[in-house]
Amino acid sequence: MDENYQRILEKIAKSSGVEKEELERRVEAKRAKLAGLISREGAAQVIAAELGISFENEKLKIDELLPGMRKVNLVGKVINLSPVRTFTTKTGEVGKVANIILADETSNIKVVLWDTNHIDLIENGQVSQDKIVEIVNGAMRDNEIHLGSFSEFKLSKEVLENVKTEKIVKEKKLIDFRVGDSSQVRAFIVQNFEPRFFHVCSECRKKVVSGAEGFMCAEHGKVNEEKRALISIVIDDGTETMRCILFHEQLVPLGITELEDPEKLLNQRDDLMGKEMIFSGNVRTNKMFNNTEFIIDGIQQINLDELVGKLGG
Ligand SMILES: [Zn+2]
């Protein structure tokens, strides 16, 4: 069952003393009453409010944050800042947005700042790499914290040691994948396409195009090229299907090695069909087709022995 939902229930159970099973019953009753118009997480938050429990005044750890929470408070260390971007709204106004990554001992999370007063703190250098900041009244949007004019964003005197800086990859169902997520999913390959080839600069590994004088890199001029391949596949985990892209390094773990031999390649592609694996990577928007795709940067074979052990135990 959904991990986030279970964690909300556990948190409510701990704060209220009401048993988890009873909470689950109340959530289902609430949803039945509302004809299923509310998610389980949403219903659980309504039940929490009815029990007089609010997470709004509580300082939370990053791994306790849940999608849909509207007033979150936390303290974290700045482990990454992206350059402030400007954009023009439909009405012609110029706005600014800044992204930072905050970390604590439990996890890390992307924070999106929309308020100019907050962005000022970054632009004038008060908030910079490794500074500890406090957030009051942030809103969870998917797996990000968004800060508006109603939020507070300020330096904190708290000390945070051993913050978790490695990328957090969450195991998810395909139906729950959101753009920007680093996710892991266990799924079946249901379709695969002919590999595509391209060339990269041997120095910077950026794409190069062939011209009259050979391959040209925008940065390095005439260079030695390296031939690269990518392959698209479609995976299905029972909740959704998704198109995925795998670059060169992932082809061998996938099981594709015979790029130069069309017949052997076809056999290897046939073998992929119906294969179940654990895929990890990043979800992004394909701007050309305006759809969501999963860029796979890790593949784990499913260890059948381990699986049998788990099911038996
Ligand atoms: Zn180059």
Keywords:
alpha+beta, 7 helices, binds zinc ion, five-stranded mixed barrel, single chain, 313 residues
Summarize it.
This protein has 313 residues and is an alpha+beta fold. Helices cover 23% and strands 38% of the residues.
Bound molecules: zinc ion
| Count of beta strands | 17
Strand order in the sheet with the most strands:
1-3-4-6-5
DSSP helix fraction = 10-25%
Number of helices: 7
Average pLDDT taken over every residue: 88
In whole angstroms, the N-to-C terminal distance is 18 Å
- Percentage of β-strand residues: 35-45%
Uncertain parts: none
Taking all Cα atoms into account, the compactness measure Rg is 24 Å
Shape: globular
Q: Characterize the largest beta sheet: strand count, sense, and whether it forms a barrel.
A: 5 strands, mixed, barrel
Order of helices and strands: HHHEEEEHEEEEEEEEEEEHHEEH
Briefly note the structural class of the backbone: alpha+beta
